[in-house]
Design goal:
single chain, 386 residues, alpha+beta, 2 domains, 13 helices, 17 strands
Length: 386
């Protein structure tokens, strides 16, 4: 595919032209569209005006995690080391410009060699010289904590005026290793923009932002009302009303996930909103259960006998402290979670015939290999076939 990039230049960067807007045209698909590459003004303030259906009080607003710290310092400190606390950044605010600048990466067949550079504001750009010469494409947002990986996203405006997101084909993995973005290895670009990565728009693009932020709406190639990262109020809802009551009484009522009507199903729905549920899959995927579904942890748990025979008592927090990073949990703690329900000292429990005090995870929920060496446990707890 031969492509041409028509550009409007706003200045010179350290290694060439800096693009403000552009039209990409492919000889196979003429007139693919125009996209706006200006960096939007993104507010990283703690307050937002958007409402959520699970908020407490009609006028509740976001207050920010530092306000939550006043009463919940232990959870605040745990959360600070969790991947949730670092899921959405402007690329210029990360170390990605230092990692990528002045490097090249082979994007594979149908894509070509990517060349990266950063300007003096730490904005990161990528070139495809074989297609577009020295003209540059900005890499705008970084999604992911970096504990596993960080993938870059750029928002553009298509010819029909809709916002499109380009998930870059190249990802930075743990320990600054660079590789193909998960799920991209077999993708073939259908237009010139997709030479830079996978394209999303509409609800799939909004959900991508939703699951990496506490609040943010994709509008006009920018993220409006952004509260970056998955913070306290992502799960608990806007906290201003709770904070007001807590500051005026020594015994405030339970809030959000601590309410009396909070149950296991509510919790799984909450976690599954981002970690995904059976409704996010096709019937064939649920039936065949490919290894890729290791990323769909609630789906695995919901088909486990441990859950099905728990009378609704098993939930995500049965095994996980949602505020604590999994890297800080010792293997013995995971085993203890299993033994709570499989204790050989309790005659009512079903006890493992192989080992009663070790090896639970390795046998019944081993890690599965994903793209680029990523490993995830699928959370389908079962007796595996040899």
């Amino acid at each position: 595919m031969v492509a041409k990039l028509n550009i409007r230049v706003i200045g010179m960067g350290v290694a060439g032209l800096v693009v403000a807007s552009a039209t990409l045209i492919s000889s196979n698909e003429p007139g693919i569209g125009t996209f706006d590459l200006q960096h939007p003004e993104v507010s990283l303030t703690q307050f937002g005006d958007a409402k959520r259906s699970d908020q407490t009080g009609a006028d509740a607003k976001f207050v920010g995690r530092k306000v939550c710290r006043e009463c919940h310092e232990t959870n605040f400190d745990l959360h600070a080391n969790h991947g949730h606390a670092s899921t959405f950044h402007q690329v210029s605010q990360t170390d990605l410009p230092e990692i990528f600048a002045d490097t090249k990466f082979d994007g594979g067949a149908n894509h070509g060699i990517y060349e990266y550079f950063a300007d003096d504001q730490q904005a990161l750009y990528v070139r495809l010289p074989a297609e577009f010469g020295q003209q540059a494409f900005p890499l705008q947002y970084a999604l992911g904590s970096g504990q596993h990986a960080q993938t870059m996203l750029t928002l553009t405006t298509s010819a029909d005026g809709q916002t499109e997101g380009i998930e870059h084909r190249v990802t930075c993995y743990h320990n600054e290793r660079v590789g193909i973005t998960p799920g991209h290895s077999k993708k073939i670009p259908s237009n010139a923009l997709e030479l830079f990565g996978d394209m999303q728009r509409g609800e799939p693009l909004q959900r991508c932002v939703d699951c990496h932020t506490t609040q943010g709406e994709v509008v006009d190639a920018s993220v409006k009302g952004l509260v970056a990262n998955v913070n306290c109020e992502k799960c608990h809802g806007p906290g201003s009303e709770h904070v007001r009551v807590a500051r005026n009484t020594p015994t405030p009522p339970k809030y959000s996930v601590g309410r009396e009507d909070w149950d296991g199903e509510s919790e799984i729905q909450l976690c599954g909103d981002c970690h995904r549920l059976p409704k996010n899959l096709s019937e064939r995927e649920v039936r065949e259960y490919p290894d890729l579904l290791a990323r769909f942890q609630p789906v695995g748990m919901l088909r486990s006998r441990c859950y099905l025979e728990s009378n609704g008592q098993m939930r995500c927090t049965t095994c996980h402290n949602p505020h604590q990073t999994i890297q800080a949990v010792a293997k013995d703690q995971h085993i203890h979670a299993c033994i709570q329900c499989h204790d050989n000292q309790n005659t009512e429990h079903v006890v493992c015939s192989v080992s009663t005090d070790s090896g639970c995870i390795g046998c019944h929920m081993p890690p599965l290999e994903m793209d680029e060496g990523l490993r995830f446990h699928d959370h389908w707890i079962r007796v595996r076939e040899e």
